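[agent] plan:
  1. take the single chain provided in the ticket
  2. run structure prediction with default settings
  3. attach structure tokens to the ticket
  4. add a short note for the reviewer (M.T.)
[agent] executing step 1
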Amino acid sequence: MATVRLDNNASVPVLTQSWLPAGAKVYQVALVDEPNTAGAKNFLSHFNPVSSGKVHAPLGFVMDSHCVAATNVNDSMTIFRTTAASGGTQYAANTITKFDLSAPDTTAEIRVSNPTVTTTGRVLIGIGPAIYPGGGGTQPSFVTPAGGAFPLIPAGTGIVFGTATGDTDQRWNIQYTWMEF
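[agent] step 2 finished; step 3 output follows
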């Protein structure tokens, strides 16, 4: 562990990411107060293009749902594997947060605003929504891979965060972190 000197001669430890695979780079995106819809909605998709030459692996996410008025819709935010993603709004690679500022831009295609995806297999995880018949409330969730095992996202595949139905009074916050190697 290295240390960094501060102006007042104090020092703080600098934590390294030595547990990451060699050459791995870490990236992050966040959606804040993203409104739901009355129908199905894909909030965020992460797709690893065939041309990337990389393997991607989620490191975890922090998510919460809250409501601004009474809600009774109880469909969870689900995460599925995908084999295709298009539409929505694609973030420019150079706008995605890098944990190491000297790292290259991500190879991931990150899409928001209801991208069109092709899902495959069964749901990987579900996060319950905030349900408050009286209005106002929140439901936080913190998820990291179980036992440190990372569900790999090989080239030509991805994942999507979405709901089957919703309520326009629901809001979702999603902070998602992954590595590429």
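[agent] step 4 note for reviewer: Confidence is low (pLDDT under 50) at residues 1-6.
[agent] ticket updated
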